[in-house]
């Protein structure tokens, strides 16, 4: 099965740049795609100095939906938004005061990759942090999801008036240009050895064993009398989706959702997780109505459980409901769900300016057609 590779290099334009992120792309692009991916064949997508967070999200979402192994190489700089103190990948237009709207929230990476089968996704990262973000990350985990293998480093800010070089990623690319891809842990160690003399001893080193991520409480699922026991339901669901067995995937997710509801209650993270899985499965099946309705329900449940309108999980649920609503072709359910979405957007405006106005305009057109 072919692999997929996403090469992403991003940093602000002008004096806000801490690292010359794009300089690594020619070196990475010179590596044969199968070597980048570790598969016999691979599709490579390159994204250099993107301007808009939605453009990055679109490329990442498409890569995450592709079957087969996925390797994402990210070079750039991290900044915190000053409202929620969440790490963002700074993009071309990002400034310290606009990062919430112009940067790419790192938790979107976790959200987009969470449904991929365990062992199928690798992140290779060479990131620099500004002073505020560096202090934040030294005492907190850098969370990319618990089903993703992460290798790389986060470097502190360079001296003033200095633009750093993405030396770790260049070392990775140089090693791979030989045409041989060693095991990832070995590749990672070789790259660290090559940059050991450039002042990188203070870096935060990222490996699957060193990245601290929250481990979900396992859902105790009663053993069914007639489907075989599934050791990793997410892998089984992913396999079913990739094979076009959407009803089977949804039935398996629904089984785990019901078990979580019985064990932990309707507002629990365990139950909400499986509801989110079912919303994504409806999207994969092309059922935008069901996906939108489920995401609206998830957002409402999170707000009802006391989460704030600015919570990343709440914002993500409303954003996904909005996205799926825009894909509904039938006017009747679009009108119905549009009214509910508008009410929700009034409470959860999200990061895209004008999102509520967009819904109201579209809803006005739909009502005029009725």
CATH architecture of the largest domain: 3-Layer(aba) Sandwich
Oligomer: single chain
Q: What's the total count of β strands?
A: 8
The biggest sheet amounts to: 8 strands, mixed
Q: How much helical structure, as a percent, in the residues?
A: 40-55%
| N→C terminal distance | 47 Å
Categorize the overall geometry: globular
Average pLDDT metric: 86
Structural class: alpha/beta
Low-confidence runs (pLDDT<50, min 5 residues)? Answer: 211-226
**Percent of residues in β-strands:** 5-15%
CATH topology-level name of the largest domain: Rossmann fold
How would you sum up this structure, described in words?
- Helix 10 packs antiparallel against helix 11 (269-284), helix 12 (288-304) runs antiparallel to helix 13 (312-325) and helix 12 runs parallel beside helix 14.
- The longest helix has 19 residues, at 246-264.
- The chain contains 15 helices and eight strands.
- Strand 3 and strand 4 (87-89) form a beta hairpin.
- It is globular, with a radius of gyration of 21 Å.
- The chain starts with a strand and ends with a helix.
- It folds into two domains: 3-206, Rossmann fold, CATH 3.40.50.1460; 233-369, Serine Threonine Protein Phosphatase 5, Tetratricopeptide repeat.
- The protein has helices at residues 25-29, 33-37, 53-65, 99-102, 106-113, 131-137, 167-176, 184-194, 233-242, 246-264, 269-284, 288-304, 312-325, 331-347, 355-369; strands at 3-10, 42-48, 70-80, 87-89, 104-105, 121-129, 149-155, 204-206.
- Strands 1, 2, 3, 4, 5, 6, 7 and 8 form an eight-stranded mixed sheet that branches.
